Amino acid sequence: MTDRYAVIGNPVAHSLSPRIHGAFAQQTGHDIEYGAILAPVDGFATAVGTFRAQGGRGLNVTVPFKLDAFALSTTLTARAQSAGAVNTLGFDGGTVLGDNTDGAGLIADITLRLGVPLAARRILLMGAGGAARGVVQPLLEQKPVLLAIANRTVEKAVALAARWISRGDVRGGGYRDFADERFDVIINATSASLSGNLPPLSKRACASATLAYDMVYGERATPFLVAAKSFGVSRVADGLGMLIAQAAESFLLWRGVRPDTGPVIAMLRA
Q1: Is 156 tagged catalytic?
Q2: Confidence band (pLDDT; 50, 70, 90) for 237?
Q3: Cα 44 from chain centre
């Protein structure tokens, strides 16, 4: 029997996950069926229950259900516990395994595909919401010399940094607090790009060798990446590689094999 997987969200029609996992299955020779489930905002658990009853083996979880997936899980991976949110579910009998592959996807895309090491680097993480929370631990595991967290609501950045202070030099504050510091890597984990807006990043924080990375992806460069280029940054990247790398982590969890993300990125760019 063909194993069934899907992405669940609201909205979900725009999701690239079916194309990504279809490409992974073809590449690895795995016989899977992968679809998309539009769940009512207040009907996540019911939709998951129906999918499991029909033989579903795993789900990718997108907005707005990552906290619902966290609550539904009977077992959590360490990185899901760290993030406080789940974007991947695996079903085995009565067990619901919750994982969060976002951080692993980000690290894989930056260090492996882009070839930018994060060890002993100065990193600025913009944002202190769910997307940022999911990547703090994986970033710290790379042993940066500094992880600065900047947010418009300063208290959120300070609180997030305080949670991880025992793991390294982690500082939280407002954008002005880091305006005169230079960073090797600047990561936009805010939702500003989705609405065409720009975080108040200081030009002085950027150097020509800085990597500017936006977790958001699209057909055009995001406002953050456009601004970074105007500040003299020579290397920019959007979040498509992260999306595909985190999907590869999900595929590994479900199928025990890690697909090659390069050909899939090239396919979607084309």
Answers
A1: no
A2: very high
A3: 21
